[in-house]
Amino acid sequence: MGEIRTSRRRPAFWLGLVLVVVVLMAIAWLVFLRPRTQEVTWVSVTKHTMSNDIFTAGTVRPVQRQVIYASEISGPVQSVLVHVGEHVRAGDELIALNASGEVAALQSAEAEVANAKAGLANANAQYAAAPPALQAQFLPQVLAAKNTLAGAEAQLASAKSALSSSTIRATQSGQVLQVNPEGIGPNGSTAPLVEVASPEKQVVLFVSQVDAVELKPGVQATLTSDAFQGKKWTGTVSSVAPYAAPSDTGAVEVEVIVRPKAKNFPVPYGYTVKVHLTAEVHKGVLTLPYSALVQDGSNYAVFTYVNGRAEERVVTLGLTDNSRVEVLSGVTLGTAVVDNPPANLVSGELVSAP
After folding, report:
1. Which residues of 171-184 are buried (b: 16+ CB within 10 A; e: fewer)?
2. Are 229 and 303 part of one and the same domain?
3. 249: which residues sit within 8 A by CB, 6+ positions away?
4. What's the farthest any 2 CA atoms get from each other in the chain?
5. In this structure, are 190 and 260 located in the same domain?
6. pLDDT-based confidence at 21, cuts 50/70/90?
7. Does residue 217 contact residue 76 with C-beta atoms inside 8 Å?
8. Do 137 and 197 share a domain, yes or no?
9. Is the pTM of this model over 0.90?
């Protein structure tokens, strides 16, 4: 009887074991194997106005300058006739050179002219006093006296020119920026004797090669200065250098000139000005936030919603700003895309609906 009871219990044991295994497999499938829907955040493709903005800084400089160095003049300086800040007009005297030699040469030339004139007058008198039949004999003397006078007058003109050169004059109207009578600056280096700046101002700035190719004459600029809080001026790019050159820091940069539109631009020479350049504007274009993009090799892509699953689409990008990017192809207006895609999100995975 004992053996019969034992044999009846075995089928029940195995049946229970099978049920446990089935339950465990069901739990495993629910927990580990069943496809799960990943919760994601969605944003839509919208239209915005995008601009290619360049932010940099430049220095206020004159459009034209007259700079006079001691090495460029013909003699020692006797006196500088202007002072810093003075306004001068074209033709005004700036520097007087030591002209003692030129003065002596002028006086000598003037005496030679006086003597030559007296000699010509004497020759003419002899010619006039001679009988008509003998006047021809005096013609060579008259001609020689005229030649002597012409030579003396030429020497006088040369002496006057030399004396005039001993006074250096302004070639343009403007303001005197520098005066260094010894030709030495405060730091001991060579400096201009006098520098005159034109009233017209410009802002000189240096940009990277990448930014330079986006700029051309006529591009609009906004100018601000820390020294003039709350003030803002407009300007335009007047020139972009056709070459790049190493800067003091070693970076290769391109010189760009911006001309303020204001006739009386108040920022002084040498001041630093902040410059905002708007190189290009695209109005009403399709855009996405940067946060929706993922890198796909050398391309960029986004995840869209198709039949309950995420679908990766490669996109072509255009202009960018601080938060958004122009999309040229790959999506259309209103397309929902995943924002801040999870690192483990793959194309074809189940995702929550937009």
Report:
1. ebebbbbbbbeeee
2. no
3. none
4. 191
5. yes
6. low
7. no
8. no
9. no
